[in-house]
TrEMBL record:
InterPro entries registered for this protein in UniProt: AAA+_ATPase, ABC_transporter-like_ATP-bd, ABC_transporter-like_CS, P-loop_NTPase
Domain of life the protein comes from: Bacteria
Keyword check for Metal-binding: no
Keyword tags: ATP-binding, Nucleotide-binding, Transport
Domain called ABC transporter: residue spans: 2-238
Protein name: ATP-binding cassette domain-containing protein
Pfam families: ABC_tran
GO MF annotations, alphabetized: ATP binding
Length: 254
């Protein structure tokens, strides 16, 4: 669980996060949604420790990040897996080598232990036949699986994903969402996902926070987002006619 308490972050005197308070729950897919410029990326980078908040607290399972020593922060960072927008794979490494990278960098595991663990996650994300391929030889969906495998290879407690569906076709996007949700449940990770994708909101939105101009204006789950009359949500989520129709259909079924 990550508790976020009254986080304020400014750049050049301009407040970008204006007192965010929320809880990202363990074993759930926690989504941050909002229009472009609402502060989603700054929020995720603040959780990662890339940005230092002006005030407020971020508490990782009882550990207040600001109160940790340098060594404790380094340890905590090894508990975080990150899936970057666009996958960010190393072009010169094959699939196996990409996935092994965090184990070689941050652990003292033997070659045999690394090989076994990499094989385990390759099987988990269904990449068995691609393990010797280079990133340029595989599809965008497979690259995303490699990025997920690399993020979970060191058994993180926390998984952060920045727009994991960007650039994928809708069908592949759902497969990737489902994979992230399944591993979140399986490994009981606290998963935080930045997304624009309304399919993701409806499919895997177990705990959603909606940001508008750096403020948290709504939170709830995918069931609740279907029913809410909050104007900001209706405006944002149901901007397309198709989604409006789905919403009417869903609410008539209840
Ligand atoms: N390093 C920075 N220095 C100055 N301003 C920044 C910095 N990072 C972000 N901002 C500003 O903070 C605001 C929120 O940006 P952020 O990238 O978090 O939005 P977002 O919701 O992630 O948008 P998008 O969906 O387009 O990625 C924007 O006005 C942006 O210009």
């Amino acid at each position: 669980m990550i508790e976020v308490k009254n986080i304020v972050k400014s750049f050049d005197g301009k407040e970008v996060l204006k007192g965010i308070t929320t809880t990202y729950e363990t074993g759930k897919t926690n989504l941050i949604i909002g229009q472009s410029g609402s502060g989603k990326t700054v929020m995720l980078k603040t959780l990662l420790g890339v940005h230092v908040p002006d005030s407020g607290q971020i508490i990782f399972d009882g550990r207040d990040f600001a109160a940790l020593t340098a060594d404790e922060r380094r340890d905590l960072r090894t508990e975080i897996g990150m899936v970057f927008q666009g996958s960010a794979l190393f072009d010169s490494m094959n699939v196996e080598e990409n996935i092994a990278f965090p184990l070689r960098m941050f652990t003292k595991k033997t070659n045999k232990e690394i090989k076994d663990r990499v094989q385990q996650v390759i099987e988990r994300v269904n990449l068995v036949d691609a393990n010797k391929k280079m990133p340029s030889e595989i599809s965008g969906g497979m690259q995303k699986r490699v990025a997920i495998a690399r993020a979970i290879v060191n058994n993180p407690k926390y998984l952060f994903c920045d727009e994991p569906n960007s650039g994928l076709d809708p069908k592949t996007a759902i497969v990737i969402d489902t994979l992230i949700q399944e591993i979140t449940h399986e490994y009981q990770m606290t998963t935080v996902i930045n997304t624009h994708d309304m399919n993701s909101v409806l499919e895997i939105g177990e705990n959603i926070v909606f940001l508008k101009n750096g403020k948290l204006v709504w939170s709830g789950n995918s069931e609740e987002i279907m029913k809410t009359n909050n104007e900001d949500i209706v405006d944002f989520v149901y901007s397309s006619e198709l989604l409006k129709e789905i919403r009417r259909f869903h609410n008539n079924q209840k």
